[in-house]
Amino acid sequence: LRGGRAAREMPFGPDSLTRVIAVTSGKGGVGKSTVTANLAVALAQRGLSVGLVDADVHGFSIPGLLGLVGPDGLPPSPTRIDDLMLPPVAYDVKTISIGMFLRRSTDGPLGAVAWRGPMLHRTVQQFLTDVFFGDLDVLLLDMPPGTGDVAISVGQLLPHAEVLVVTTPQSAASDVAIRSALVARQTGQRVIGVVENMAAMTLPDGSTLDLFGAGGGAEVAERLSTPEEEVPLLASIPLSTALRADGDAGTPVVAASASDPAALAVTALAERI
Ligand code: ADP
């Protein structure tokens, strides 16, 4: 990443033909990154040209989820051409993440990112302006959870972006999910729908296990709907061992276990947005 120079023009401004979709959640651990990575792959499987910006700078996980790990165990660095960067590609998704710029300190783990607002803003801005994605049909952004600096920066940089809210079926998660969507809406972004993740799974004996309760996604959708604009519940993705294991292995479930119920739900989501 470079600092100092005047910013290049934003290729994803209001005149661009690329749909920009920011995936947000009220809190961490609801599966936002897993859903975003799989949605990106499912959209690419539909034949769309897809980019993915890992804007969850402090908690980046997209390179691991897409198996973007080199022989040294690190995400590959983007190739530089002059002062543009070419994003690494996995499952036909062009991807950029801060993890691609961090290097292991001697034999320790990947460096942690402990940046404050202005640095975060510049990083997200550079991901959007200095990475050569080419012509994209869809650009997904994996947002950090909550309503922090990056959400506000993205709202300023991409006021025409659409927002997808990921939440769990637990009604206790609803308030924070709604708050994150309202911050995005305040910056002019349109909330296009809610994705409920970790919904009830069907067990081998045919019974269902709803570990996190039921109804949270529908509740968030209803409470975000206005008289002018209905916000639909676009998908309910069940708890899934395959989705979790494939995420850990860096082989997204929509590619590795396409008939799994969670994979089918994400594929259906990719058809609906
Ligand atoms: P977030 O981005 O919201 O912090 P992650 O995508 O990192 O959440 O997911 C948190 C954990 O939950 C990961 O270990 C992931 O594999 C797991 N997970 C996500 N969705 C599901 C699901 N539907 N079923 C089972 N495990 C899930």
From TrEMBL:
Whole-protein residues included: 92 to 364 of 381
GO molecular function: 4 iron, 4 sulfur cluster binding; ATP binding; ATP hydrolysis activity; ATP-dependent FeS chaperone activity; metal ion binding
The organism of origin for this protein: Microbacterium lemovicicum
GO terms under biological process: iron-sulfur cluster assembly
Coiled coil spans: none
Function description: Binds and transfers iron-sulfur (Fe-S) clusters to target apoproteins. Can hydrolyze ATP.
Keywords, alphabetical: ATP-binding, Hydrolase, Iron, Iron-sulfur, Metal-binding, Nucleotide-binding
Binding site for ATP: 26-33
Protein name (database record): Iron-sulfur cluster carrier protein
